[in-house]
Design brief:
The complex is a heterodimer.
Chain A (H helix, E strand, L loop, with lengths): L1 H17 L13 E8 L2 E7 L9 E9 L6 E9 L3 E3 L11 E9 L2 E2 L3 E2 L5 H4 L6 E7 L2 E7 L15 H5 L2 E8 L4 E8 L3 E4 L7 E10 L4 E2 L6 E4 L2
Antiparallel strand pairs in A: 1-2, 2-5, 3-4, 3-6, 6-7, 6-8, 9-10, 10-13, 11-12, 11-14, 14-15, 14-16
Chain B lengths: L1 H27 L8 E2 L11 H16 L11 H4 L7 H17 L9 H15 L4 E2 L4 H17 L1 H9 L1 H12 L1
Antiparallel strand pairs in B: 1-2
Helix pairs in contact in B: 2-5, 2-7, 4-5, 4-6, 4-7, 4-8, 6-7
Chain lengths: 231, 179
């Protein structure tokens, strides 16, 4: 009974993973440099073509899974694709999880073997873009409004988890006094509106911001610098 | 003055009485609100040290490159399934001690320079959980820990590499369970 089950499992696995093709895999055709590139928690699988007869088209098949799962899942949108990338943002949206992706190629009726990524941890691997800042001034004080990059998680009504808390991010705002050439970190927190008061009249200031991941001690690049003149 | 003393002592008596009453109430409730673990706590500040967190993650990453077994995972939902949430920290203490004694120490000359920085950090966490105990029956926790140990042993050297590759998961699980 047990061996029979195993055989059935094998058959099902074979059909699921291989598309049931009878040919042996051609390892030399395997896609190369299969890796996740992650920006603002948008996780996109990229790869390069393996070897194939040059005048034949190449198509690719993408699968993914969580580390520890036995079965691979097909990514429908990247099944028989001709692209060299595949957006797996939705499939890898659990920040603290670990994932794998893999790709195989078919060309001229031959299938390559699977090429797999390294273990992928979204929140550890992602690169975060700087915030965009809007600066307005009135009555000698300056109001800085911070905009996060386009993250997949959107703050939902009825929940109290903001985008910033969800991703465990804070903003850092720096004030540069032009005449003293001195830079000061005047704000660090998850709030999107920062008011800077007590500025000296007739002085010039520049404001710049970044996004900081406290647990990793990592900062984004800095935002565009915006300068104001206090009347 | 005497009156003041009297009021102080009577309020003290009142507090004592209230305390006794509270104890009785807890006792009558059958101990459901009595903690089932004690001293199972880590400081939030232990998990706010970017340098050592990065080192721990780099060590895990390095080891995970050498772990080709994507199907088997030591620290995940399965480890905690069926274990009361109040016992999670105690469970993780056991996993941490096992990892230190049976995995990291034998491998202490590999994965340098990360290993020499991460091990003392984990030893310190283990020390802080020294007094973490469980009241009553811990069979279920022991069974879970044994399963993990058996998996590592069964996989042999690649099981130990897997355990090192999961130090990031160990770290996160300790944080979630013990803060």
């Amino acid at each position: 009974m047990v061996p029979k089950h195993c055989f059935l499992g094998f058959l099902i696995g074979f059909v699921l993973t291989g598309g049931g093709e009878p040919q042996p895999a051609h390892e030399s055709m395997n896609p190369l440099r299969v890796q996740f590139q992650s920006r603002n928690f948008h996780n996109v699988l990229h790869w390069q073509p393996g070897r194939a007869p040059s005048n034949h088209s190449r198509i690719y098949f993408v699968q993914y899974k969580k580390y520890g799962q036995k079965e691979w899942k097909n990514k429908a949108e990247c099944w028989e694709t001709q692209e060299l990338f595949c957006d797996l943002t939705d499939e890898t949206s659990d920040l603290r999880e670990l994932y794998y992706g893999r790709v195989r190629m078919a060309s001229a009726g031959n299938y390559s073997g699977w090429s797999m990524t390294r273990r992928f941890t979204p929140w550890w691997a992602t690169n975060i873009d700087p915030p965009v800042i809007n600066v307005t001034q009135h009555n000698g004080s300056v109001l800085v409004v911070l905009h996060a990059p386009d993250f997949p998680y959107r703050h939902q009504k009825g929940t109290n988890v903001t985008v910033e808390n969800y991703y465990d991010l804070v903003y850092r705002v720096f004030l540069i006094n032009n005449s003293l050439e001195k830079e000061q970190n005047i704000y660090e927190g998850a709030g999107r509106v920062v008011e800077i008061g007590a500025l000296m009249p007739h002085s010039g200031y520049c404001i710049v911001a970044e996004i900081y991941q406290p647990m990793l001690g990592r900062s984004s690049q800095r935002s565009e610098e915006i300068c104001v003149k206090i009347p | 003055m005497a009156a003041l003393q009297k009021s102080v002592s009577s309020s003290l008596m009142g507090t004592l009485a209230a305390g006794c009453l509270l104890l009785i109430v807890l006792w009558v409730q059958g101990g459901t609100s009595v903690p089932i673990t004690s001293n199972c706590r880590l400081d939030e500040s232990d998990f706010q040290q970017p340098y050592i967190i990065n080192r721990t993650f780099m060590l895990a990453e390095e080891a995970s490159f050498a772990d080709n077994n994507t199907d088997v995972r030591l620290i995940g939902d399965k480890l905690f399934r069926g274990v009361h949430v109040k016992k999670h920290c105690y469970l993780m203490k056991q996993v941490l001690n096992f990892t230190l004694e049976e995995v990291l120490l034998p491998y202490s000359d590999r994965f340098q320079p990360y290993m020499q920085e991460v091990v003392p950090f984990l030893v310190r966490l283990s020390g802080q959980l020294n007094q973490c105990h469980i009241m009553g029956n811990d069979q279920q926790v022991q069974r879970k820990v044994q399963q993990l140990k058996d998996t590592v042993k069964m996989l042999g050297e690649s099981g130990e590499i897997k355990a090192i590759g999961e130090l990031n998961l160990l770290f996160i699980a300790l944080k979630n369970a013990c803060i």
